Amino acid sequence: MRSPGPKSPRALIAVLALALAAAACSASTAGGSPSPASRTATPAPSTAAQPSPSAALPSAGCDTRPWQTAPVAVTRDVPVPPVPVITAVRTAAHPECGYDRLVLDITGPVPGYTLSYSTQVTADPSGRAITMPGRRFLLITLRPAQAHGGSAALAIPRTVQRPGYPALMSWVLAGDFEGVVTLAAGLPDTASVRVAELADRLYIDVKR
Q1: Distance in angstroms (rounded) separating the CA atoms of residues 90 and 155
Q2: Is the pTM of this model over 0.90?
Q3: How is residue 75 annotated by DSSP?
Q4: Looking at the predicted structure, is the pLDDT value of residue 43 above 80?
């Protein structure tokens, strides 16, 4: 039997080329894209709760004037006649602001006034006791003033009114005599108050 002869240079070159190609392919597979474990993780967006506005802050439009403790007294030297006239009394609840409001509409200059607390209400000038809702009563006395007269009908009822708000439970026109007007507001207890004046009215806020 004849032994195989030496391979030709061309055949050796072909074998070497195939071997190099196979090695290159193996290296590409080993050094390709990094495995999932080796990839850098992208941080997830933070889901921490953002601070919300405090519920204790008053809503937009609420009165922010400072509160006072009764008694409150404001003296006015109002020339008369004519005597300032209290033409109407209105109420409003402001739960979003934390107070209830009593508004006195006035014709003429705003008179002097006092605010004080009492445990009972009496009619002026008769002195009879007035029964109304509330445990403490805020007496609002205006002078010089009246709640009657003139050609226009006044919108002030002469009976106890019961708005039933948390702070302002009731109110009544307790007196209208000799240039002095007295209103009484029934409250669940003594509370901070705030008084402010506009051109044609006086308003009293009672803190809840």
Answers
A1: 9
A2: no
A3: -
A4: no
